[in-house]
Structures are given as C-alpha cells and as structure tokens.
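# step 3/5: fold
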Amino acid sequence: MTTPSDDAPGPGEAYEFPSVLTGHVVAPGDEPRVHGFGVDTDLSRHFRFGEVVLLTLTGEEPTAEAGRVFDLALMHVLPLSVGTAPVHATVLARLAAGRVPAVLGVAGLALAEHAAAFAEPFEALVAWAGGGATDAPPPALAGREPRAAALLAQATALGAAPPPMHSASLNHAGAVLLLFYTSGLRHRWQVEAAIMMAGLPACAAEAAHHTPMNIRSYPLNQPPFVYEGGDAP
C-alpha cells in the first residue's frame, strides 16, 4: 500500500481557482447597481419596489403591468395566520426568548419550506400555460374556486393579458402561480424567493405581539393530553 507524500498537492491545491468571487446581480459602489440599473438615479426614481424585486429575480426590466400583477400575487401569499407553520414557528421562537435575529432566522427556515411546498406545481403550470393551456390544468392546480376567478379578473383589470383557456378551472394557489408566471417568473426558485419575502412581515409582526418567556399564553395543553402507564421517561 502506498500513501501520498506530505508534499503532494491535495484536490484543493491541484485545481486553479479564481482569485475573486464573481457577482452577477448587484454591483456595489458609490451607487449600487442591480442588473446595471442605478439604485439612486434610476430604480428609486422610476420603479416601484415590486418592480425592483421582479427585475432582481429575472434580470429583465419589467413593464408596469407585470409589476402590478407581481404585486397582486405577493398580496395573495402574504396573509399567513398563526395557524400556518411559518408564523407558528416564529411565535414559538419569540416565546422561547430568542433574539430578533434568531426569531427571524426561524421564520426564514419555515418560510423556505412553506414556499417550496406552495411552488411545487410551478413547473407543471409553466408547461401548461406555455403550451397554450388548451387542456384542463394539472390536478394540483385544478379546483374552480371563486376566489381564483376573482383574482384573475383583478389581474386583467390591472393590465395583464387575459387569462388562458381553462383558467376558470384553477384553484386559488394555481391562480397565484399563474400570476407569478404572467409577471415574468419562469423558474421555481424565483417563485420560492418571492413567497418567502412576502411571508416575512406576517411572521415578524405576529411574533412581536407575544411576550418572551410568557409560556402561559401558549395553548400548551391543546388538545388535552395525559400520561398513561408506567413512569414518565
């Protein structure tokens, strides 16, 4: 058996790595730039926040109509109640006397899982909508929910293109994903990032209404439980 010499280069030394980390989205400087657009002289003067987020995610300058549709989709994924996993987890972190960075970190982790679950059918929606939506929507997006129809009608009133054929068969989640697609998102990671961003205010605001270490305010015994048989471990 042979052993490598102490002087032999390892995998990290044998490869010629670049000497700097390359950035592709934000260029720092006296005036930061996002995909080439100056924050001070352009974005803050001519774009709304949602449009800047859309630009950041896609690398393309959004139209005003796309920005409005994107804002509408964000509004429909923002209202997370304490009964949802991300907000519930954030409240528990607050009750455990976590510092604000820790509480928001818990929110971010829970929101990432929530966003991943919400956006899971997005690839199927892209294939469906990109193919003309001539067939019924994929099962995960189907539902014929009145709220979905109202949302798509509101998007059309804001300047979006008329919804595709069979869009009346969408459930609410499907309609929201369709609006993300209509606004210019084409990749699931883009949708997940948008949903995470939209859900953070609800998590933070709900947690702020709870007092650290006030465990008595938490419904710990719901549903009621009792220990049975033998000694508790």
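# step 4/5: annotate
The two ends are 51 Å apart (CA to CA).
# step 5/5: archive (pending)
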